[in-house]
Amino acid sequence: MSASTSPCKLVILVSGSGSNLQSFIDGINNGSLSADIAAVFSNRPKAYGLERAANAGIATEAIDHTEFESREAFDAKLMERIDSYSPDLVILAGFMRILTPGFVQNYHGRLLNIHPSLLPKYPGLHTHQRAIDAGDPQTGATVHFVTEELDGGPAIIQAAVNIETGDTAETLAKRVLTKEHIIYPQAAQWFAEGRLTLESNNAILDNTPLSAGGYQYND
Ligand code: NHR
Ligand code: GAR
Fold first, then answer.
1. Do the bridges between strand 155-162 and strand 215-217 make them parallel or antiparallel, or are there none, so unpaired?
2. How many domains would you assign to the chain?
3. Active-site residue 144, yes or no?
4. 97 and 163 belong to one structural domain
5. Which of 115, 143, 165, 183 has its CA 20 to 30 A from that of 19?
6. Is 38's C-beta closer than 6 angstroms to any atom of ligand 1?
7. Can you tell me which atom of ligand 2 is nearest the CA of 93?
């Protein structure tokens, strides 16, 4: 990041509801996140996240992945459009397309994702059902740097929630989301403050390498 005068410029990618996007908009509006959102992208033209962005006066672009012949072609277009905003940081917020190595390398050290599990447990999809089926006492969410390894990049911050008797994937998803809305803007704020970097596959916060699950958030 350059001098204190220019806030961290974000581009946010969504595929769905965009409640995590909303937590960034709210954090910027209440002063807890020193950043600007330059644009919001979706691979799904009907994603509610695009409406949230438009309601907040943020530029939106829908790039429908079904109109591309290959992942590489979709990613190349997405990259070209994202780079036109020169973001400092790219945020995957419920973005549901796996990204190609070329895309990930282009944003090395400035691409974050939030994943709804206590990584390294349950990379991939259907995380809440898998945690319930395994009889785990807890699950949660993890913010991590995105690398070529799916959901395998270094963790930055993680929050746990208890799994209660009778929980379903849906009830759990709701409780985990309330934690996501706290930890994701927090991670972005650390990055905006220049306190968070990726160095040789380690997440570094305040010059100290974070441990496997990242910073453990407790409220
Ligand atoms: N790309 C790379 N290279 N690395 C990561 O760590 C990534 C990534 C892209 C997205 C988010 C991730 C999650 O947090 C994410 C991390 C989608 C899928 C998936 O299987 C898996 C993981 C994640 C996102 N997507 C299907 C696909 O074929 C499509 C599913 C759908 O459209 O509903 O891309 O969970
Ligand atoms: C969030 O729970 C996020 O962790 C998860 O999707 C939800 C998006 O909600 N991400 C993934 O599963 C990525 N594969 P939102 O659209 O309301 O932010």
1. parallel
2. 2
3. no
4. no
5. 165
6. no
7. 18
